[in-house]
Design a protein that fits this description.
3 domains; Rossmann fold; Glutaredoxin; single chain; 11 helices; alpha/beta; 445 residues; 18 strands
Length: 445
């Protein structure tokens, strides 16, 4: 069967148009680079937290990987590293990646102190660290540590049974302390009965709930630190202040007893004494922060407005809840004769200018918020880290922790791989060729 000239001409025009479109698309793609990640957990792109960290790093980052071209157990180690680092180079073009083969250049590996195949040396702004496990969390956290230029000192009060930033007990703050250490801070306990004063090199002082009374002399040292412009993180529990009443008075806080009760927590099968927060007033510590945070056994914070301090609400929780004077027994219910309706302010920031410096204070009405038992809930550790960064005047480094990517690798057996390969490379082409031949024969008939 002959094809009419008009039809043949039309087919020629369509083919020419198709070729022109392909050429145009190819030119456009070469001029405008765009990437879309449609994977379930966006495994082929960086989280916003990692992108934010890269924006803070001004200047070149040098990555040196000590890896052989082929590993007996893992095969090619270099290509996966190239592919992964390319995600970072997409947002920061001055990241240099270099490979050194320890078997061919043993002297260079020895001088650099490389100890294992695949180890990475990260250098930035005259500082360096090593990385042995490569994923987004480990690399971004390392870059965040290098972004802290001053290796700032955080001191935490000890000697009255307080929660310890390096402690492993359930009520301690050890996991939070690990996060701060990972981010480049130095931690040190401070016993004010022994120290003459809070050291001048302390960037901020962390105070948690004491179990024994402070001595008057210790309180005087704390107030002196405050008067000199020192920054403070105060984690309050629903317990007596044990001598810290002058600190509350200095900050204008009105601390009445009572527990925040949240029906939303009960709906999530959590205790009613867990106050939940999911929306946050505008502040540097909560910029782009949208994670749920949990505040067990929280107390509400109330303050007297005065000209000395600027007060900013950081966390409001339990919008459908209330503040009860005592722990609830049995079924929870609002009692308007004794309960105060929510929402309740649980975290508060105070700031002022004193001695020609900006002084920053954060008060949180739940010490359990960052305790080892509860810090893994929601975004507790992320918010706690943001609070510390703000107190340390590292506002630019306030980011959300990069996500942990789920392992969605598909593991196939040799038989399955053979079946898939045979189908794609043999069966499918033959099927398409057969269909094409049949259509050609039909047209010829």
């Amino acid at each position: 069967m002959k094809i009419p000239p008009t039809s043949a001409k039309l087919q020629g025009l369509l083919l020419a148009a198709l070729l022109a479109m392909l050429v145009t698309l190819g030119w456009f793609a070469s001029q405008h680079h765009r990437v879309w990640d449609w994977t379930q957990n966006t495994a082929n792109s960086l989280s916003p937290a990692s992108v934010d960290v890269l924006k803070q790093l001004k200047g070149k980052i040098a990555l040196t990987v000590f890896a052989t071209e082929q590993d007996a157990e893992h095969g090619d180690l270099r290509q996966p590293v190239r592919d992964f680092i390319a995600l970072y180079q997409r947002y920061k073009t001055d990241i240099a990646l270099t490979f050194i083969d320890p078997s061919k250049q043993p002297e260079l590996a020895r001088q650099a102190g490389a100890q294992m195949n695949g180890e990475m040396l990260v250098e930035y702004d005259g500082r360096h660290e090593r990385l042995t496990t490569l994923n987004e969390q480990t690399l971004t956290s390392l870059l965040l540590r290098l972004a802290h230029r001053k290796n700032q000192l955080i001191m935490y009060v000890d000697g009255h049974g307080e929660r310890k930033l390096d402690g492993i007990a359930n009520h301690d703050l050890g996991e939070f302390g690990k996060r701060l250490t990972q981010n480049g801070f130095r931690l040190s306990p401070l016993n004010l009965t022994l120290a003459q004063d809070v050291p001048d090199n302390a960037k901020l002082l962390a105070i948690s709930q004491p179990r024994a009374d402070w001595m008057p002399g210790e309180v005087e040292k704390l107030l002196r630190f405050l008067e000199h412009g020192g920054n403070v993180l105060w984690l309050l529990d629903n317990e007596p202040l044990h001598g810290l009443e002058p600190l509350a008075e200095k900050l204008g806080l009105v601390l009445t007893p009572g527990y925040v009760i949240d029906p939303a927590a009960v709906e999530q099968r959590a205790p009613a004494t867990w106050a939940l927060a999911s929306a946050y007033p505008p502040h540097a510590t909560t910029r782009d922060f949208s994670l749920i945070t949990v505040f067990p056994f929280a107390r509400a914070l109330v303050w007297d407005e005065n000209e000395s301090w600027k007060h900013s609400v950081l966390v409001e929780a339990a919008p459908r809840g209330w503040v009860a004077p005592s722990l609830p027994l049995g079924k929870i219910a609002f009692d308007k004769s004794r309960d105060t309706p929510g929402p309740a302010v649980i975290a508060l920031a105070l700031s002022r200018n004193i001695n020609e410096r900006d002084q920053r204070i954060v008060v949180v009405g739940s010490g359990s918020f960052l305790a080892n038992s509860f810090s893994g809930n929601g975004g507790n550790l992320d918010l706690g880290t943001n609070l510390i960064n703000w107190l340390a005047a590292e506002d630019a480094l306030i980011v959300t922790r990069p996500r942990a990517v789920r392992d969605d690798n598909l593991q196939l057996s040799r038989t399955q791989l053979t079946t898939i390969g045979t189908t794609l490379l043999l069966v499918l082409p033959l099927l398409l060729a057969g269909i094409g031949g049949w259509m050609w024969w039909r047209r010829r008939a």
